[in-house]
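Researcher: Please translate sequence to structure tokens.
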Amino acid sequence: MERKGKELGLGFWVRWMKVEEDGRLSINIGYVDTGSPTVSSSRSWKSMEMEIQSLLEKLLDTNDAMSRCAASAAPTTSVTQKLARHRDILHEFTQEFRRIKGNMNSMREHAELLSSVRDDISEYKASGSMSPRMQLLRERAAIHGSISHIDDVISQAQTTRAALNSQRTLFGDFQGKVKLLSDKFPIIRGLLGSIRRRRSRDTLILSAVIAACTLFLIIYWLSK
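Model: Translation complete:
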């Protein structure tokens, strides 16, 4: 049973490599050479897809059979580890198959889009007039270009707005500092004025004392 699981796993990897090479090649050749999907390429991919799906189902059945056999007997640690390993391998195979299938579908859709555009261009060259699909594609491209230009203008406007806001904040801080200094200037001016007045008063008192002493000395000298 374990040997059968390994054989199915090996078969899956072989088919996977063939699908990833032949599937991509058949899709590209089918669209590049003829401009449209060929019946042979579609059938080839479908047959490989069904074959891999069948291998996955057989591998799932084999894992279930091994699990039942292990459950009927006394499972050892090595058997449990092998069963877990086989389940992990099945999960990896399933994920790889889904990834390949998604890639193939994306490639097919991309090739169909290119084929449609190529047909529209050929029709335009042959008839000399633009098909509705081509007109829509051109209008869509023009709208996309306009939107990109508008996004650039909006981005520049936002950058300019941010710079203006920064300058306005800077000017606001400067005005606040100027106002603070103007509020402090009257206090400083008042302090200087009071200092000057006090100095003038001290000067007057000192002058009066000197004059009184001088007058007292003169009177004393004349009284002798």
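Researcher: Any highlights?
Model: Helices lie at 2-32, 39-72, 77-127, 132-223.
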